[in-house]
Automatic annotation (TrEMBL):
Organism: Brassica cretica (Mustard)
Family affiliation: Belongs to the protein kinase superfamily. Ser/Thr protein kinase family.
InterPro entries the UniProt entry points to: BSK (IPR045845), Kinase-like_dom_sf (IPR011009), Prot_kinase_dom (IPR000719)
Pfam families in the record: Pkinase
EC supergroup of this enzyme: transferase
Primary role: Serine/threonine kinase that acts as positive regulator of brassinosteroid (BR) signaling downstream of the receptor kinase BRI1.
Protein name: Serine/threonine-protein kinase BSK
């Protein structure tokens, strides 16, 4: 066994850049397997080396690792880890501006897919316990090998091999930046010590493991603070995924809930260590003799490649609106007359009744306002349920706020976004469209003038009974957690989370933000890139408005008229066009945008 490990260690290599280009067809978008497509900060590609050996290739920006030698040293260290519970890192490349990691390819997708977006069957209880056990084993091995810090442990970091066994990605063992910071833009499940100090410590991974336990128990993303409130209220079994009914003993579920609670303690020193995780989870496995692929309903030893959808099909299947926008440009996705559109594809399960879908879409399509993206049509043929909207050429708020390239959004533009979206919501409210589903930074898009507009896709019900927030509860209004229903006041809560995004430039869980505000440290929320751009009184007013919107009692939140009255006076540069504030070319037409994309594609080809 020792010889085998030594031999495997020797297999770690520094790859030639041309070899990895060839393996990914020139880093083709069609080979991307990570969420977020090309817009992700660090993209993961599926590649094929000589001998048809499949690998996963993660591409970092040079800014993350300006020192090539440091990158190679770090990768080589991680590459020495070999364990059946880990996805082995088998190589790296640091040529020119490229920083690439090469790992084993896991053919059976991620925990996120199997837990939140399952198609044939939900993950059974016994498989969820096995995942908790195997990941605890992986973390314990890393700890014993002095790799005690794991960055951003989440359901995307857990992958399934050809046997259906879960393994922990070694990508998370690499620092995402020179100083080891992580959680750079998504703070929804961030260990409290990172919020306080901006640093990750070994105990942070235990907190993140606790969030994985919550995912496994509930089948949803539940903010830790909400989960702990439920647990303290002696209602622990309310956390449980209803699809698991009858599969587990209540004592076993209670033990896992209690373990999650221990992991999620705000004081790092109060959390258990990896040995405790193992001792707590291992005894709960009751069907160790049953293979994982059987529990998961996978064919034995099947190497299942991801379905080779077209880029547009892949983006539609993920409901990735931003990716759909890019792909429509790149592939000439237009209606007759070169009219660019955005098309959202629902599953038939969401809308089994075609007529009901058309009626709902027609109602939303009647809304016309300069602050809304107009819905211009729909299609309900066979199993297809499609919405067609105006195309917004200047991307999403998420892109400009969290993944900006040239400049961060200036203060005045952030205030304008808050104002214009309040106008959009007020118009919807006045037109008796009082429920908006999952308002977030992806729902706010920028038109050819650079003005922000609210997507009308969010006005459509995502299912027959009108539920939303079905798998992502990180920013969920408390009433949905209590009742499973969305009410008109829920959109005000979500607007409050948008204000937090705009103020901080990060995803900050509302509960953490409110703690900071109550501590009279409101300005600690502010994005450091905005320093010197705003008056503290104006920032305080926006923070106070966010606080009002985020009240746990729906009746205590303001209405849309109040939002308008609070935000409009904060605009100080109304005479400056949005495209100027954002540094965009004036009145970029679809042809201009296509030309820009074509130039980018040519640049990629030259680089390749």
């Amino acid at each position: 066994n020792g010889d085998q490990v030594e031999q495997e260690n020797q297999n770690f290599k520094e790859f030639d850049l041309n070899e990895l280009r060839k393996a990914t067809n020139g880093f083709s978008p069609s080979c991307i397997v990570s969420e977020g497509g090309e817009k992700a900060p660090n993209v993961v590609y599926r590649g094929k080396l000589e001998g048809n050996h499949l690998v996963a290739i993660k591409r970092f920006s040079r800014q993350s690792w300006p020192d090539a030698q440091q990158f190679v040293v770090e990768a080589t260290g991680v590459g020495k880890l070999r364990n059946k519970r880990l996805v082995s890192l088998i190589g790296c490349c640091a040529e020119g501006d490229e920083r690439l990691l090469v790992a084993e390819y896991m053919p059976n997708d991620t925990l996120s897919k199997h837990l939140f977006h399952w198609e044939k069957q939900p993950l059974p209880w016994e498989m969820r316990v096995r995942i908790a056990d195997y990941i605890a084993q992986a973390l314990d091995h890393c700890y014993n090998e002095n790799r005690k810090i794991y960055h951003d442990l989440n359901a995307y970091r857990i992958l399934f091999d050809e046997e259906g066994d879960p393994r922990l990605s070694t990508f998370g063992l690499m620092k995402n930046s020179r100083d080891g910071k992580s959680y750079s833009t998504n703070l929804a499940y961030t260990p409290p010590e990172f919020l306080r100090t901006g640093r990750v410590i070994p105990e942070s991974v235990i907190f993140s493991y606790g969030t994985i336990l919550l995912d496994l128990l509930s089948g949803k993303h539940i903010p830790p603070t909400h989960a702990l409130d439920i647990i303290r209220g002696k209602n622990a079994l309310l956390l449980m995924d209803s699809s698991l009914e009858g599969q587990y003993e209540s004592d076993d579920a209670t033990k896992l809930v209690e373990l999650a609670s221990k992991c999620l303690q705000s004081e790092a020193k109060e959390r258990p260590d990896t040995k405790f995780l193992l001792s707590a989870v291992a005894p709960l496995q009751k069907k160790e003799e049953v293979a994982s692929h059987v529990l998961m309903g996978l064919p034995k030893n099947a190497v299942i490649l991801p379905t080779m959808l077209s880029p547009l099909g892949k983006a539609c299947s993920k409901m990735d609106l931003a990716a759909v926008h890019d792909i429509l440009l790149k592939t000439g996705g237009k209606l007759e007359g070169n009219h660019l559109v955005a098309i959202k594809r629902f599953s038939r399960q969401s809308w089994p009744d075609a007529q009901q879908f058309v009626v709902e879409a027609t109602g939303v399509g009647k809304l016309r306002n300069k602050r809304l993206v107009s819905l211009i049509g729909c299609c309900a043929e066979g199993d297809e349920r499609l919405l067609v909207a105006e195309y917004m050429p200047n991307d999403t708020l998420s892109k400009h706020l969290f993944h900006w390239e040239k400049q961060p959004l200036p203060w005045e533009m952030r205030v304008r976004i808050a104002d214009y979206i309040a106008q959009a919501l007020d118009h919807c409210y006045n037109e008796n469209r009082k429920i908006y589903h999952d308002l977030n930074a992806y729902r706010i898009l920028f038109d050819e003038e650079g003005d922000p507009r609210l997507s009308t896709f969010g006005l459509m019900k995502n299912s027959r009974d009108g539920k939303s927030y079905s798998t992502n509860l990180a920013y969920t209004p408390p009433e949905f957690l209590r009742t499973g229903r969305v009410i008109p006041e829920s959109v005000i809560f979500s607007y409050g989370t948008i204000l937090l995004d705009l103020l901080s430039g990060k995803h900050i869980p509302p509960t953490h933000a409110l703690d900071i505000i109550r501590g009279k440290n409101a300005l600690l929320l502010m994005d450091s890139s905005l320093e010197g751009q705003y008056e503290s009184d104006d920032a305080t007013k926006l923070v106070e408005l966010a606080s009002k919107c985020l009240q746990s009692e729906a009746k205590e939140r303001p209405d849309t008229k109040f939002l308008l009255s609070a935000v409009a006076p904060l605009q100080k540069k109304e005479e400056v066009a949005s495209h100027v504030l954002m540094g965009l070319p004036k009145n970029a037409t679809s042809t201009d945008v296509e030309r820009t994309v074509a130039m980018r594609n040519e640049e990629r080809e030259v680089l390749a």
